[in-house]
Amino acid sequence: MSNSTHRPNFGTLARALALALVLGTAACGRSGAVETAVVVPPPTSDESKSDATSEKAVLAGGCFWGVQGVFQHVKGVTQAISGYTGGAASTARYENVGLGDTGHAESVQVTFDPRVISYGEILRIYFSVAHDPTEKNRQGPDVGTQYRSTIFPIDDSQKKVAEAYIAQLDTAKTFGEPLATTVEPGKTFYRAEDYHQDFLVHNPSYPYIAINDLPKIDNLRRTFPDRFNAEPVLTQSAVAVSVR
Hints:
The protein is an alpha+beta fold. The protein has helices spanning about 15-25, 65-70, 95, 120-130, 155-170, 200, 205-225, and strands spanning about 55-60, 75-85, 105-110, 140, 140-145, 150, 180-185, 190.
């Protein structure tokens, strides 16, 4: 299924089922193989220290439920919002993006405190546990350009760090094959519908989440214990569910 089990977005269950049939395999919600972590080395080039207390990063790596869930559990992250990046404002809706022809990727806007965690360290978690950066225009069971591995830098500094890190990992053959991750600057992030926000936290028993995304949270806890925050940072008013 492509929409929330606890808050349908399309008015009636019949309409939701009809949309799922239209989207077919291009919608978040099918289960697949469990993803394993590949702990990558830290970036050799990172942003310079500054007095800033807040910075944003926009990342795409498959269905945004799992990527948002990962970064909600990272220390230093103050907010993680699911959304769409790469296309026009007029098509930044789930039913449009799911068709795969809008230019958008399901993405997550991560707000973090650079005094606690750097942009390069955010990218390290992104490459290591948030998704598989070697898959082109897909992640696991989800296929289409809307599931591509993409970094959307918000300024030239982030662009340089992202491009240098991809080159570093490729040169070292960290994944045994070239990264499919693209760097797409100058794109606007659009927040996704409310029912997509905090989806992993609210739906831990949803089959797609249990099979595809909860292992990512466990990988984060095991491989980056110093970065793991058991209490997720939520985008909406709700009771937090700890993942320990």
